Amino acid sequence: MTTIGIIGAGHIGSQVARKAVQVGYDVVISNSRGPETLAELVAELGPRARAATAAEAAAAGDFAVVTVPLKSVESVPVEPLAGKIVIDTNNYYWERDGRIPALDNGETTTSGLLQEHLPKSKVAKGFNHIMYSDITTDGAPTGTENRRALATASDFPEAAELVAKLYDEFGFDTVNIGPLSESWRAERDRPAYVARQTADELRENLTKAPRTI
What we know:
8 helices; alpha/beta
């Protein structure tokens, strides 16, 4: 059975965990406050889930989902994620994270920053432009008319393919933006951000996105 290591148990991390166990994954989930603070969530998730430290979740996962505030990216364990696919859900909220000139100037992306922090991992963008509550409620079977689509991006085809597989299992179509350098197209304040859109609509919104806001 495939295990997902989830680093960050906030709105997105908790919702990804809920949907993951529903579709048959095992989950090891962590937060910054310690495994004991996740007892209620783990009890809700059931026997497929357990709480751990971030390092333990990273080590346990066949792949990982990193869903911590951008300002906390440096706390993500590096070595336990070496060689693994890591799905990055982040957006840049300067009000929370502080100003990051390289992002303000369009020189890099949030997922690019995580890839720099995890040089031996294969980072892919995912779940960053959907309201957290919709992760468990807005999916639909493959082939459903007007099925919602979500974007991914990665420098590694196998990482983008894994995100597409997970999206499909969760009930969403996929639009692959391309490399991480293009992942800004689905980030905050762009046309694709948190909009409910089909694959064709998402492609159009990604094309219309301005590089800097």
